[in-house]
C-alpha cells in the first residue's frame, strides 16, 4: 500500500512562490537569473565560507559595517563590499560548500559522453580532484566541507521525521506487537545511524518504548560520541561499532532502520547491505524501515531532485524514483514492500519492508 501523509508543514511551500516568480520574469530575465545571478551568488557564498565572513557574521546578532567585516577577516574592503552587494541584492542568507564539485559535473559528463557513472572510485568527485579513491573508505578530499560526524544531525534539523504524527503509524505497526518476552529483545536498530540523533528523536517521541535501542556506525563515528555525562544522547541508546558490509549481529529485532544510507550506494552494493539485514530479520515479525527521498514518478519536489544531482556529483549514486526503489528492494534484494509513506512529494519517505514468507 502506498500512502501519502496528510501533513503539510514542511512541504514545498516555495512552489507557488517560484511559479509566481517565473510568471513575473521575461524568459531573458529567467535565463540571466540562472546563469549570472545564481552562479555568482553561489561563488560568493562559497568564498564567504573560506574567508570566514559568515562565521564572523553569525558569531552574534550585531549588524556589521563592511569595514568591520574586512577588519575581522583580513579581506580587502573594496572586494568585500562588491561581493556582499550581490549577496544583499539576491536577498540570500544561505551557504554553499559543495560548489567546486558540482560545477565540475558538466566537464566530467562531457568526458563520459553524458552517461550515468557506475564507478565509486572513478566518478565526478575523483575527476574534480584528479585522484582515484574509494568513497566507501569514508574519506573524501572534501571531508572538511561534507561528511563531518555532526553534519547529519544538521541535515535532519527541521525536516519531517518518520516518527511525526501522521507520517508512519509507529504505535500500530511496531509498538503494539513488540515481543518483549526475551530480556535482550531489540526494538530498533539504527544502521549507519551516525551520532544517534534519529534514535534520540524516536525516544523523545516514544519515551516508554520497550526493548533495546541499538545505534550502529563505524568506529570513527561511534568514538566521536561524547561520554554519557556530556552527551544529550540517552544512555538507553547502545552505541555499537558495526560495518554494514558484514553480517548483522543483532538478530530478530522488531525494526531495522536506515536513513540516507542506500542513496550513497549503487544497486549491487545496496543489495549486499540489504542481504545482511535480511539474514538477521525474523520472517513475519521484523520490519526494515528505509527512510529516503523517494522521488515520485511525476511532480517531483525540487529538494529531492537537487539532492539527486548532488549524489551524482559526489558519489556517482542517486536518489531513486519509486519505480527504481521498488525494483531494487523487491526484485533485486528479495524483500517485500509493505507500504511507502511519503511526505511532501517524496522529500522524506519511509518504506516498510518485510521478509517474504
Ligand atoms: C549519509 S550519513 C546518514 C547518517 C544517519 N543515518 C542520518 O540519517 O543522519 C551515512 C552514515 O553511514 C555511515 N556509514 C558509512 N559506511 C558505513 C559502514 N560500512 N557501516 C556502517 N555505517 C557506515 C556513516 O558513518 C554515516 O554516519
Automatic annotation (TrEMBL):
Superkingdom assignment: Eukaryota
Catalytic residue positions: 263 (proton acceptor)
Keyword vocabulary terms for this entry: Methyltransferase, S-adenosyl-L-methionine, Transferase
Segments crossing the lipid bilayer: none
Molecular function as annotated in GO: O-methyltransferase activity
InterPro entries reported in the protein's UniProt record: COMT-like, COMT_C, SAM-dependent_MTases_sf, WH-like_DNA-bd_sf, WH_DNA-bd_sf
Entry's Gene Ontology BP terms: methylation
Domain O-methyltransferase C-terminal: 172-331
Protein name: S-adenosyl-L-methionine-dependent methyltransferase
Organism listed in the record: Parathielavia appendiculata
